[in-house]
Amino acid sequence: MSLQELETRLRPIFLAALAGDAAAYRLFLDTISVRLRGYLRQMLARAGRSEASEAEDVLQETLLALHLSRHTYDATSPVTAWAHAIARYKLVDHLRRSGRHTANLPLDDEAYQLAGPADGAASEAKLDLERAMAALPERTRALIGKVKLQGTSVAEAAGAVGMTETAAKVAIHRGLQAMAKFLSRRGERPG
């Protein structure tokens, strides 16, 4: 099944699931599991890891993340891209936890197919995020950039900006709260 066919099939099922249809949700999870299992096996193999149980572990983490993050799904975006992005984040997290560096993890060709067409809403959202980051104090901005965007540890980021790990955690937490408040105010404005 092509990616477009999968998207055409999954999108209405997932939207029904979001509306409370339990049978649709089960069908969505069953269908996306097949696709993500293959994706995760392929990516783990490309990273030098071919243990089938490892792919299943990452798949289970991904399915849990999909469940917990379903409220974040933007109905104007492809559901397959959303699911694959979460799977990739879980894969990277798994490789980091297991001591495997992800710098050499190749970008999969499918990722380019999954990305939806560029539009004004995405550009506007990016600009809003940049403005929210710019409103933060410099050290907080640096911490969030290092930890949340670049994936460094809190300890490494704290050392780089001359803070204790505890102070860095507090600064990151407060910075993210400030960004959320900034972005929620932007959402209230008429556009």
UniProtKB/TrEMBL annotation:
Residue ranges annotated for the RNA polymerase sigma factor 70 region 4 type domain, each copy included: 128-179
InterPro entries: RNA_pol_sigma-70-like, RNA_pol_sigma-70_dom, RNA_pol_sigma70_r2, RNA_pol_sigma70_r4_t2, RNA_pol_sigma_r2, RNA_pol_sigma_r3/r4-like, WH-like_DNA-bd_sf
Superkingdom: Bacteria
Keyword Zinc-finger: no
Keyword Transcription: yes
Segments forming domain RNA polymerase sigma-70 region: 35-100
Keywords, comma-separated and alphabetical: DNA-binding, Sigma factor, Transcription, Transcription regulation
Transmembrane region(s): none
Gene3D superfamilies: 1.10.1740.10, Winged helix-like DNA-binding domain superfamily/Winged helix DNA-binding domain
Family the UniProt entry places it in: Belongs to the sigma-70 factor family. ECF subfamily.
Protein name from the UniProt record: Sigma-70 family RNA polymerase sigma factor
Source organism of this protein record: Bosea vestrisii
